[in-house]
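Task: fold both queries, return tokens.
Query 1:
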Amino acid sequence: MEDVSDPPFRAVCKAGGADLMYTEFISSEGLIRHAAKSKQKLDIFEYERPIGIQLFGGNVDSMREAAEIAAAANPDLIDINYGCPVKAVACKGAGAALLQDIPKMVRMTEEVVKATSLPVTVKTRLGWDDHTKNIVEVAERLQDIGIKALAIHGRTRVQMYKGPADWSLIGRVKENPRMHIPIFGNGDIDSPQKALEYKNRYGVDGIMIGRATIGAPWVFNEIKYYLKTGEQLPPPDMAERVRIVRQHLDFSIRWKGNRLGIFEMRRHYTNYFRGIPDFKPFRTRLVEADTHEEVNEILEEVVKAYAGQHEACVVSM
């Protein structure tokens, strides 16, 4: 969720029902060297709580020092990312690369746990590849050195995000009588029905949702409503969808400034209006608009153009 789950996006996710959120992952090397981009990612707000600051890195000492810096920003917890599969991260010995060196992963985690009085959680994957799906052992070892919760993505690093997520090993971790910390499952949850099915089938304590929130930050409320009632909420109509886009845009401008806030919102318009028929002319104008006022004027036209067309507002997540 790099370049997605910043404070403006987290604002609409919180309004959409998210119970626990994490910052974008922050490079430990960037943080200890006071890189501006890394330091900015420490920005958290009271409305976000509970909120975790997520760190990644390949050097044990740097991770320990970064944890101390992150803790000073007063989050509710510190999260370590051992799941990111992208080359720019893994090839530097960070993220999912630690799945190739479990003793180092354990040592690094232990140092982070010692460095802060805050709860420490971990996000990881099943293993590096099909021959090293060692998550059951890894979960025990991480629990033994003091983490307070574990989120597991149901793919290996080699899989990246391809193929279906395998939740069977997530279920085995949860069923392990040695495990007593909360286990969160992640991967392929893109509907309330699937959330209920996987929660019941694998017994996890919670579900972590990433990509399905992009363009649909209301998915949390949809899932929670379905879990409670067995019924599906109707999708937001265009007026509600535009209201959320405006909220996202307003916060983006307040946090990043007018120019950058408007520019970085452009990547979100395609997602918010995905599946809307005949929307391309509006999208083109939105990504070309240079002022807050111009964007709002276009959004007002969108509301009027699609008034009453509820069936046009169904987005495939």
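Query 1 returned. Query 2:
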Amino acid sequence: MTETVAAARPARRALPPLMALTDGAADRLRKLYATGQEGKLLRIGVGTKGCSGLSYQMSWVDAPGPGDEIVNDKGVTVLVDRKASLFLIGTVMDYEVKTLEAGFTFTNPNEKGRCGCGESFHV
């Protein structure tokens, strides 16, 4: 009699979240969603631009599209264009206020470098 032994599959390692928000980014988005962008959602994508080739793109949309990943973090929803998902896995979005400027910033573990002006990156 022959016994078949099923090979035990190794446990799958958990994937990092597609994107996370800092408290600053979540607070700023809540304010935007409650005022001028009420009823809209922020969509984040990646496009070709600049010296290094890629840049972050943000736009306001009325509803998720068929190619959007929905990210819920800290009670806030943002959309990620599915075509940008591989470039953004593990990215942390923040909102920074500096002396002369304020805006959303991205800490992306997939970035291999940025151009000198900081407008574009490459993976």
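Both queries returned. Flag for query 2: Helices lie at 23-34, 85-88.
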